[in-house]
C-alpha cells in the first residue's frame, strides 16, 4: 500500500526543515570560527603595521595602485602591451595622470 500524499508531503517538509536547521547551526559555528580568525588577522595587521589592501596579486603596480609610479607598467618597453588583465580594470591614481606644470 502506497503512503498518502499528505504523509509524503509532511515527511519531505520535516526532512527539509531538519536540513535547514543543520545549515543554520553549521553557519553559526563557522561564524564563530571566522570571527576568531578575523580577530587574529586584525591583531597581525596592527602588529605588522600594514597599511594597504592588496587588491590584485598579478603585478606590483596593480597590487597597490596608490604606491606605483608612472613608468612601472612600461618597464619592459615604453610601447609594450599590458601584460596583466587587472591593468585594464584598475585605473592609475589621479596624481599620475594629471599634467604637471600646466595652467588651465
TrEMBL record:
Domain of life (superkingdom): Bacteria
Name of this protein: Uncharacterized protein
Native source species: Geomonas paludis
Amino acid at each position: 500500500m502506497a503512503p498518502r500524499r499528505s504523509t509524503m508531503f509532511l515527511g519531505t517538509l520535516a526532512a527539509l526543515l531538519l536540513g535547514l536547521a543543520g545549515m543554520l547551526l553549521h553557519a553559526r559555528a563557522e561564524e564563530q570560527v571566522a570571527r576568531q580568525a578575523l580577530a587574529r588577522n586584525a591583531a597581525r595587521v596592527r602588529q605588522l603595521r600594514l597599511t594597504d589592501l592588496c587588491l590584485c596579486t598579478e603585478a606590483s603596480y596593480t597590487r597597490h595602485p596608490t604606491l606605483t609610479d608612472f613608468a612601472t607598467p612600461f618597464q619592459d618597453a615604453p610601447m609594450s602591451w599590458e601584460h596583466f588583465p587587472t591593468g585594464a580594470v584598475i585605473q592609475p591614481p589621479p596624481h599620475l595622470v594629471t599634467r604637471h606644470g600646466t595652467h588651465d
